[in-house]
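Support reply, case 0932

Customer input (verbatim):
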Amino acid sequence: MSALPTLPLLWSERTWEEIPGDLEAAAGAALLPIGATEQHGPHLGCGMDFVLADLLCRAVSARTRVPMLPALPYGCSLGHSRRWPGTLALDPVVMTELVRQIGSQAYHSGVRRLFLVNAHVTNAAPLRCALELLRAAHDDLMVALVNTATVSERVRAAHFADAEDWHANRAETALMQAQAPALVREDRIAEADDPDRTQNLVFAHPVNRTSRNGVTGFPSQANAAEGAELFAWMVEDLTALVRRGLTETPPLPHSYDGPAVPMPGA
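Our regenerated output:
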């Protein structure tokens, strides 16, 4: 048995002559890593979310040979407020339109299965809107929205272990300790813990009103070994999901624009 490829298939490194063959070999699939640039407490770099999305999709691309589009480093981070410097947030309407346009352009290059791989929690709403617009505009385009922290139950359990409304917590800190240590300020971790204050609240409050330092959770509990194991789970579970998606077909063949077919006996 031959070894699995070790290098990702990066859209940015392929030529216009090569991309059609890449897509044909991958059932028309492509990965779009999406993150954010935002404060991550006193101990993590502001690029944590897009760095994670990029690293994860590179690993999955290497295993599946699905081309990876360039990572989107900005996201819908308005909830982090302006209390702490570093956050560069997109308006959700702008983000929806940005991803819609990227997806549409990818479609015209031959993509027919688009995986939106999201590593920032509050990107989910604008990304869902982009998904709706893309599939309505392109009848033969299938779009999947995958949130990295909930790609499987074991990954979800690890992320939510120390906080329900987590951010820069044990899981995220451990992931960066293992995969991107340059983003970690080890000397600031011990005093970075801040508990989740969102339980039993009626309203969704911005982070400036729920956290003292931009953290929600207990990064002091993190370690690199735990992060390496969690990242391996994320790669394995996202790879399995992508592989399932490469052979999926719609349950019914009806056109989005076509008229309804009368039921027998109607």
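We compared this against your earlier run and they match. Two observations from our side: The two ends are 56 Å apart (CA to CA). The first strand starts at residue 29 and ends at 34. Please reopen the case if you see a mismatch on your end.
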